[in-house]
Specification:
Strand order of the largest sheet: 1-5-6-7
Radius of gyration: 33 Å
């Protein structure tokens, strides 16, 4: 109660607080209470998070410490898939270099890591039978808390005597204020230290609960996991830290850590192993596609893919001239069966094209704009930005409805550079977009 306003306010250290254990029958068990408290502390460490999946809140960026978030690629199409990357990855002047991971790859890595732990379960049980009480012992913290409570009681007595003496007799006010402030500063320091010790005691209790829960889960799963189990993910894993190159660190609830590696795509493996492309440009999906579609890997050779026209310029042969296919021209790099299977997969995965596909160019890097559909609408975005992030190209984003309006008004046809979309002081619907013919 504030003695001036007579209103109830939160006690922020003005008066002593008292914690009474087992004051009444508990609604939930102490283990559950401590586990929830530890989970809340864990979530605060990783900044803001929104739980949209069982994986949410447990995948952490090794660069900035932020949480990984789930994103949808090719939403609304037959190629839709879920991927995860750091929520700060493409933020202005704050991008991260940790990789984007497919959800299936994350789950597969967890299954492999969990089975690795299960193979050593007997050793884990033996170690914790000997060390569990020692690593969760909080007696030293509790002893220190008792000492602090005694010191705080002495300070409260001294402060009461000082206030009483000031009320009953004439005391120099400067001396009174100095002594009172000194008592209060010492009291606040002890209370802060007591709060730290209380948190340490809670951490010990939570760690004991987590270790017991971890061991109980190990006892349940006597056989290796055949597939991803969300219950095991939540019960055993504290967090999964992701670093560059697909390297991850699984931190389990008992505090043990297990380095692992998430299987990445061909382009990611090429970057990680330092394998150069034939053009020395960074690995991308286009580079991989050119390798797969190159008939020379099967030992064949297609002649006259391009020719020199009447103006002396080399152009792609799209049917203007005859082309000649020579089988078994040279020793094959891969078997013909593997080559044929790759072509069949390519034909099965032909992407859906849109009226503007391949016709819009980024004014910053010259890359092609690709269609990005999300719950916020449909935009055309720089493909370089989408695949490699802001570190390579700041990117440009143009709403499809504005694109359709401009293209209709200007009767646009052919390849165009999207101009006017790089002003970051305006929202994407406030920018003055124009379509400039490529080559002007």
């Amino acid at each position: 109660m504030d003695f001036l306003t007579k209103k109830i306010k939160v006690n922020e250290g003005e008066a002593p607080q008292y914690y009474v254990e087992n004051s009444h029958p508990a609604i939930i068990g102490p283990e559950v209470f401590e586990t929830v408290g530890e989970e809340l502390r864990r979530r605060k460490e990783g900044r803001r998070m929104v739980s949209v999946s069982i994986l949410s809140g447990r995948i952490v960026c090794g660069d900035c410490g932020g949480f990984y978030g789930r994103k949808a690629w090719h939403a609304g199409s037959q190629y839709a898939q879920s991927v995860w990357h750091c929520n700060n990855k493409f933020q202005k002047r704050k991008y991260c270099f940790t990789p984007t991971l497919k959800e299936e790859a994350i789950k597969d890595a967890f299954v492999e890591a969990s089975n690795s732990v299960l193979s050593n379960r007997a050793e884990i049980f033996a170690n914790y039978d000997l060390a569990l009480d020692a690593i969760t012992d909080d007696s030293a913290y509790r002893k220190h808390v008792t000492e602090i409570d005694g010191q705080c009681g002495e300070i409260e007595t001294l402060m009461e005597r000082l206030v009483s003496a000031n009320a009953q007799s004439r005391v120099e006010q400067k001396d009174y204020n100095d002594r009172y402030n000194a008592y209060m500063a010492r009291y606040n320091g002890l209370q802060q230290r007591r709060q730290e010790l209380t948190s340490a005691i809670a951490m010990c209790a939570a760690k004991r609960v987590q270790i017991k829960g971890f061991l109980a889960e190990l006892r349940k799963n006597k056989t290796p996991l055949a597939q991803f189990d969300g219950r095991v993910w939540q019960a055993t894993l504290h967090q999964m830290k992701v670093f560059e190159g697909g390297k991850v660190l699984f931190v389990f609830r008992d505090g043990s850590e297990l380095p692992w590696e998430v299987r990445c795509e061909v382009r990611s493996n090429g970057k990680k192993q330092g394998i150069p492309t034939y053009t020395d440009y960074p690995w991308s999906s286009h580079q991989v596609l050119r390798i797969i579609s190159n008939e020379k890997y099967a030992g064949d050779c297609l002649l006259q893919k391009s020719f020199v026209d009447d103006n002396g310029k080399q152009v792609r042969n799209n049917g203007q001239r005859e082309r000649y296919y020579i089988r078994n021209d040279h020793p094959a790099i891969v078997s013909r069966a593997d080559w044929q299977r790759a072509q069949e997969l390519r034909s099965e995965r032909v992407k859906k094209t849109y009226p503007f596909s391949g016709w819009l160019l980024c004014p910053l890097c010259g890359g092609t704009l690709i269609r990005d559909a999300s719950k916020w609408g449909v935009d055309w975005v720089c493909g370089t930005y989408m695949h490699h992030g802001k570190a390579v190209c700041p990117g440009i984003r143009m709403p499809e409805d504005i694109l359709l309006r401009i293209a209709t008004e200007e009767h646009a046809s052919g390849r165009f550079v999207v101009d006017g979309g790089t002003d970051e002081t305006k929202g994407k619907r406030e920018k003055d977009y124009t379509l400039v013919p490529d080559g002007y």
